[in-house]
Design a protein that fits this description.
14-stranded antiparallel barrel; 16 strands; alpha+beta; single chain; Porin; two-stranded antiparallel ribbon
């Protein structure tokens, strides 16, 4: 196990003789900032110090307390810069070097962190401080052994019931301006069934520098129905990419190849490339923006083949209260461009769309999590369907409630209810669907 370390005030117990004389700023009440920090009110301490930044930035006393407050409030890069100014002016200020090392450590810049920690140890600090620093150095050594390839795998089995396995309309008849009144039959109508879902997958990661890693993986999913075997599906996903972190920013690039099969036929192929940027606003809030470009191909239905562009952004925030609620909200816009130049292709695959999504997760018990989500997507197609005589316009509503119980480090149990409603102006695309399932997952 990793040594326990106090991350809020590493310098507790450090002799004041290690401090170089600090300048005093009359208008800045350092004691008020420090009092808020000791009360655990990091954000308030940071906001108080921030009020004086334009006036006092560069003052050693101010930069020191402002740097500590910024780090505790999750503004790690901001606090690091302030502490670097302190050390530049007062190189023998080992108290500041200690906190500077902590900032580098939190950013996983281990080489710089070790350098600062060893400088502090060379000054023979009090035993409690020396032990704290040695704990950090041990963790850095453990991190260095993590720059090796690692892997994980899982298998999950789910049982459930689906009220509309083919996402088909319940109404059997509709009017066509070309053919008059038509009736849907067989697999074109809504069908319900029980199902068994089997998911297996694995992932390999290779950290090659602090905060940087390559990864690749494969996921396979198969769904089997008790009655309607013609709707059984298999989905294969293979992906690879790179992730890295730079200060309060995290970046990722991922490539994906997917094959979706229906009735043992190659029904759809997809190739996509996505990039993401996550800004860590503080220790509990992240802002993420993602861009994806994907190309889909339907070998037996070329009019549905397309190129897809999606841009989305959203915020996730975790509250420090009972049940640790985490909320997230996102919006996205997209465009799907039909590959074929025909009215039928534009009616089937060319569209503008946009949507919003909100989710809430709570942890009511140590090993239990519950998540609820709502989403809305607006779709506007660009071509007139010859059968219905209409250009599709629709709202897609989705809602879900899921729960998971961690049995131990390997086993987990899950349950969920998922609802989908597609409110379309064309009868053949208007449907609703409810799926309920229970699952068991084993992670290797």
């Amino acid at each position: 196990m990793k040594p326990a370390i106090k991350t809020k005030t590493l310098a507790l117990g450090l002799c004041l003789s290690l401090l170089s004389p600090l300048a005093l700023a009359d208008s800045f009440k350092a004691s008020e900032v420090e009092k808020l920090r000791k009360q655990g009110k990091a954000q308030q301490a940071y906001e108080l110090a921030l009020k004086y930044r334009d006036e006092l930035e560069g003052d050693v006393t101010y930069d020191y307390y402002y740097g500590l407050a910024a780090i505790d409030a999750g503004k790690i890069s901001e606090g690091l810069i302030a502490l670097e100014r302190v050390v530049l002016v007062t190189p023998d200020n080992y108290l500041a070097r200690l906190e500077l090392g902590r900032a580098y450590f939190l950013l996983k810049e281990d080489t710089r962190a070790r350098q600062e920690f060893k400088t502090v140890l060379a000054a023979n600090p009090p035993e409690t401080v020396a032990n704290n620093v040695k704990d950090f150095i041990r963790i850095i050594r453990l991190r260095e052994t993590e720059y090796k390839s690692s892997g994980s795998a899982y298998i999950e089995v789910a049982l459930g019931h689906d009220t509309n396995i083919n996402s088909a309309p319940a109404d059997a008849t509709f009017f066509s301006p070309l053919f008059g009144t038509l009736s849907l039959t067989g697999g074109s109508l809504e069908e319900s069934d029980d199902f068994l879902n089997v998911n297996v997958g694995g992932k390999l990661s290779h950290p090659f520098e602090p905060g940087k890693q390559l990864f690749m993986g494969v996921d396979v999913s198969a769904r089997y129905y008790s009655t309607d075997e013609e709707f059984e599906t298999e989905t294969w996903n293979a992906y690879a990419g790179v992730k890295w972190r730079d200060g309060d920013n995290s970046f990722g690039v991922t490539g994906l190849v997917q094959e979706f099969e229906l009735e043992d036929l190659d029904n759809r192929s997809l190739v996509s490339l996505s990039g993401s940027w996550t800004r860590h606003l503080n220790r509990k809030t992240d802002w993420k923006t993602q861009l994806q470009v994907a190309q889909t191909r339907y070998p037996s239905q070329s009019v549905r083949s397309s190129t897809l562009y999606i841009l989305g952004t959203g915020v996730t925030h975790q509250y420090g209260m009972k049940w640790s609620p985490t909320i997230s909200g996102s919006v996205y816009l997209g465009f799907e461009d039909a590959q074929a130049e025909s009215e039928a292709a534009r009616a089937a695959a060319q569209r503008n769309f946009g949507g919003v999504r909100a989710a809430l997760q709570i942890i009511p018990a140590k090993r239990v999590s519950v998540t609820a989500s709502l989403s809305l997507e607006k779709n506007h197609y660009r071509g007139e369907n010859i059968l219905t005589g209409k250009t599709r316009n629709e709202f897609l509503y989705q809602a879900s409630v899921t729960g998971r119980y961690l049995v131990d480090d390997n086993w987990s149990l899950g349950a969920g209810v998922y609802y989908t409603e597609n409110d379309s102006n064309t009868a053949v695309n208007d449907y609703d669907r409810t799926r309920a399932q229970v699952s068991a997952r084993y992670t290797f």
